[in-house]
Amino acid sequence: MKILPPLSGRHSGRATPALHDDQTTAxxxxxxxxxxxxxxxQTNPATSGVVPPTFNLNSMPGYAGVIELVCxxxxxxxxxxxxxxxxxxxxxAVAYFLVHAPQGFFPILNKGELAVLYCFVxxxxxxxxxxxxxxxxxxxx
Length: 141
Known about the structure:
Elements: H1 15-25, E1 42-43, E2 50-51, H2 60-77, H3 81-100, H4 107-110, H5 113-128, H6 135-140
Antiparallel strand pairs: 1-2
Helix pairs in contact: 2-3, 3-5
C-alpha cells in the first residue's frame, strides 16, 4: 500500500538536483559566525582538571539530536526516505515555532530562515520520495 504516490510529470526528476545548490550555499544571516563557538569549560579548583559539560539525552535538545542523527542517516542512505523526511520536517517546524517564532513573525528577523528552509526541503523529500539510486529503489525491484 502506497501512502503517497511518487510525483510524476515532466519536471519531477529535475527538481531534486536543484536543491543541492540552494541547500549548500545557504548561510545564516544577522551577524552569525559560520564557525562553531567553543563550549565553555568548567574548571574544578580542587583538582584543576577540566570537567566536560553534561548533556541530558532526556531533554528537548536530546530528542532533536537523536531525530536529526537517525533521520539524517536514513536520508543519506535513501532508506525509509518518506517517513524519515516527514519526521525531520516536523522536528524543524517545532524548532522554528518554539525557538524562533516567539522572537518575531518573519524568519529573516528572528533568525529562523534555516529552520524554515530545512522544513520545506524535508517536506519536499517526503512528497517526492527517494531517487533511483536509493536503498528504497533497490527494495522496490
